[in-house]
Amino acid sequence: MSFLDYFRGSKKNTANVAKERLQIIVAHERGQREQPDYLPQLQQELLNVIRKYVQISDDMVQVEVDRNDDVSVLELNVTLPER
């Protein structure tokens, strides 16, 4: 293995890594596109209502929409602090 072969081999690996990263980004963007436009606002309003009763941070509430054929399910996960 010569010195130049070392650099040639790493370019292939770098290209593969870049390709995989791009595929992940595209898949993530496609997933975001399927979410309803109102979801961020809904999450903020739910967070405000929950804050009336319990002190929580933004990252303690997760709102997701799951779609199966012709049914959409709104999933709300709230991590409540221990008292």
UniProtKB/TrEMBL annotation:
SUPFAM superfamilies: Cell division protein MinE topological specificity domain (SSF55229). Prevents the cell division inhibition by proteins MinC and MinD at internal division sites while permitting inhibition at polar sites. This ensures cell division at the proper site by restricting the formation of a division septum at the midpoint of the long axis of the cell. It comes from Marinobacter suaedae. The keyword Cell cycle applies. Keywords: Cell cycle, Cell division. The keyword Cell division applies. Belongs to the MinE family. One of its GO terms (biological process) is cell division. The gene is minE. It holds the Pfam family MinE. This is Cell division topological specificity factor.
